[in-house]
Amino acid sequence: MSRNSTCALSSLSERLRHVTGPGVVAGAGPRPGWWASGKSPSAGGAHRWAAGGAVTEVEFPRRQRIQMNVHVSSDQLGIRDIEQPKRRGIRFTLNGVLWVLQALFGFFFAGSGFGKVLMYDAALYAAAPQAVAWYAAVSQPLIVFIGICEVSGGVGLLLPAMTKVKPVLTPLAAAGLALTMILAAAFHIVRGEYALVPANLVLGGATAFITAGRWKLRPVAPGSVSTARMVGSFAVLIGIVLLRFLPTWYTMTSGQF
């Protein structure tokens, strides 16, 4: 064995002793650069490292043998741990679904109710049955009252929960709208207007779901009034006026009703 090989073998042995503790070094072999285990890692045994024509045999404790085997095998195969990128997707939560429903049906009922509130005008009320047949079977004060309930319910779906001022009003508003839709479905069934019943059931089911969600499942906790919440609520009111009230008013007063 050459002097350089002997020095390399001694250095490797010292490193193995430093990492794994005391061991027994012995033997020589013809094949350089290989690693083997006399026994399985779980059963115990001597591990051999051949480098530069010499074999180094070291007895390791069980846990260290396993770690060394895995480490060397991974290095020989060129395997490296690669962190897989995490997939990012849309996460649906009950609270998020409730907010979406509150926004959709809040705007819908606010606009629908405002159209009924405009029935306070006698001329509009007289012309209404030409566009909506069942208006003729309902008195003018009752239609206006239904409109006020729907506008209040639509706004109630949003503002109390957004401002966190009396947020319990949100499920109460949803419950009132659900009751209104149930009564409307019964009214249309009595009149034989079965084509209008499915819409009442969908609206009633959605508002009933909001009632259960905000009352028991995901209630909104009361909080202090903040500038951000008030600004957001004011923006929602402006949106309702611009997107629902003004178009409804223009349609009904311009003779397109």
Going by helix content, strand content and strand pairing, the class is: mainly alpha
What share of residues are in beta strands?
5-15%
Rg from alpha-carbon coordinates: 39 Å
Q: How many helices in DSSP terms?
A: 9
Q: Major beta sheet, specifics?
A: 3 strands, antiparallel
Q: What level of helicity do the residues show? A: 55-70%
SSE series: HEEEHHHHHHHH
Mean pLDDT: 79
Low-confidence stretches: 21-44, 49-56, 68-82
Strand order of the largest sheet: 1-2-3
How many runs of DSSP E, i.e. beta strands?
3
Number of domains in the coordinates?
2
What is the 3D form? Answer: elongated
Q: What is the terminal separation in angstroms?
A: 106 Å
SSE layout and pairing:
Blueprint: H1 3-20, E1 34-37, E2 46-51, E3 54-59, H2 62-77, H3 94-117, H4 122-131, H5 140-156, H6 159-163, H7 169-191, H8 197-217, H9 227-253
Antiparallel strand pairs: 1-2, 2-3
Helix pairs in contact: 3-5, 3-8, 3-9, 5-7, 7-8
Quick description:
By secondary structure, the protein is mainly alpha-helical.
Descriptive overview:
The chain is mainly alpha-helical. It has two domains: 3-77, no CATH class; 94-253. Helices cover 63% and strands 6% of the residues. It has nine helices and three strands; from the N terminus they run H-E-E-E-H-H-H-H-H-H-H-H. The chain has helices at 3-20, 62-77, 94-117, 122-131, 140-156, 159-163, 169-191, 197-217, 227-253; strands spanning 34-37, 46-51, 54-59. It has a three-stranded antiparallel β-sheet, with helices on one face. The radius of gyration is 39 Å and the shape is elongated. The N and C termini lie far apart (106 Å). Residues 21-44, 49-56 and 68-82 have low confidence and may be disordered.
